[in-house]
Amino acid sequence: LFAAHGVAAVDEVTSRREARAMVLRDVHRAVQLHGQHFRGRTWGHVLRVAELATRSSPENAATAFRTVELVQHSSITLLGRSALTAFIACVGSFISHSAGHAEGGGRLSVNLSAVQLTWALADYFVSQQQRHAPTTNTAAATSSSANGGRSGGSGRSGSVVVQWNSLLHQLRDGGADARPEVCHSSLKTLFPLVITHGLAVPPECWATVLWDVMVFTLNRLEAQAAAAAAHSALDVQPHSGAERFSVTWPTSFSATAASWR
To answer: In the predicted model, is pLDDT for residue 240 greater than 50?
Structure first.
């Protein structure tokens, strides 16, 4: 009930920042003290409160993100399938959030911390898949025999596919961020994450991973590089003291892009 009221309080279109800050602090304390008892829709309300804070002040966004980190570190195993999917989207909202940046705040620590949180999520996915692997393999073999070779178990496996796809899309979208720090951090996490955990990514994900994430990202980087080259070509004779326009991508991007050609 408190979380549902928290959503209403944070979502209310008023200038009462103090009230919003108080709600966010109370939600954080409630998760800290009683999170082990939360179930079902309660987590959805908590995550909704946190996500709405990304549209508020930098201080409120930072408070809400501490709650997200708390859920990741101490309550992630309590999240059901739908709540875990919502949690991934919530982390993505902190990767791209711009609370206070338009006012010259320029604080990117929350954005960059949210990017790092995606790696912790991937590690969690892998550990859960390894934990359920023996049961899943046995059940899949039985179901496959019963269905003439067609694999069953669409419940949990379907959720795993959705979760991996959502996680990688958050990093892909972070890689399109106009702020270089967020863009570079997202891309420097995306490619190593796929390399490190690629074997754990379900086969059903790979069409999306390849085309909607990897190729999409590389095509965007190529377009940006071409635009930068065209801009540089126009600047044939720069004025004295003027700097040429340049875009520097990490060497890992170049190596990865080259391997795809």
So the answer is: no
Q: Which two tokens stand for residue 148?
A: 């003439």
Rg of the chain's alpha carbons, rounded to an integer? 21
Residues 6+ apart with CB under 8 A from 3: 27, 30, 42, 45, 46, 48, 49
Model's pTM, two decimal places?
A: 0.76
191 and 255 Cβ atoms separated by less than 8 Å: no
Task: Check if the beta carbon of residue 140 is closer than 8 Å to that of residue 152.
Answer: yes
- Whether the Cβ atoms of residue 156 and residue 136 lie closer than 8 Å to each other: yes
CB 19 within 8 A of CB 68: no
Amino acid at 38: F
Mean of all residue pLDDT scores within the chain? 80
- pLDDT value, residue 178: 92
Q: What is the percent of the chain with per-residue pLDDT over 90, rounded to a whole number?
A: 56
DSSP 8-class letter at 176: T
**Length reported for the chain:** 261
Single-letter amino acid, residue 145: S
Give the residue from 184, 196, 124 showing the smallest Cα distance to 160: 124
On the 0-12 / 13-18 / 19+ scale of CB atoms within 10 A, 230 is exposed
Q: Which long-range contacts (CB under 8 A, 24 or more apart) does 209-212 make?
A: 209/164, 209/165, 209/168, 212/169, 212/172
Residue 148 has pLDDT above 90, yes or no: no
Cβ count within 10 A of residue 58: 18
